[in-house]
Specification:
- By secondary structure, the protein is an alpha+beta fold.
- The protein is 25% helix and 19% strand.
- The strands form three sheets. The protein has a two-stranded antiparallel ribbon.
- The N and C termini lie far apart (56 Å).
- The relative contact order is 0.09.
């Protein structure tokens, strides 16, 4: 086959499951789910900052997602750890900088 030809072939999901290591298959499944949600244009999807689990969280439920999978709190507005009652702009952002083998928190 010439590399400039278009390939219309595909692998079935069952063939992928038989061929790929479980870690790769999980990453593939996660990517398919994420892309499906993106294409569906579902409003109110919030992604857990720790495990990337996606949840539909209506605005009426507030700004804090408590992930049903890993129980980590995520702010739906800024994506950082939960910080209620502080506003996103009131939360001090921390960066760890390595300077000559010393960790400095800014």
């Amino acid at each position: 086959m010439n590399s400039s030809e278009v390939c219309d072939g595909f692998f079935t999901e069952s063939m992928l499951r038989l061929s790929l290591p479980s870690k790769i298959m999980k990453a593939y499944d996660d990517a398919v789910c994420k892309e499906t949600l993106k294409i569906a244009q579902i409003d109110d999807i919030v992604t857990c900052r720790a495990c990337q689990f996606q949840v539909e969280l209506p605005e009426s439920a507030g700004i804090l997602l408590i992930c049903p999978k890993c129980k980590v709190e995520t702010c739906r507005l800024c994506g950082d750890e939960g910080h209620v009652p502080l506003k996103c702009s009131e939360v001090e952002k921390k960066c760890i900088v390595r300077y000559k083998s010393h960790n400095i928190i800014i």
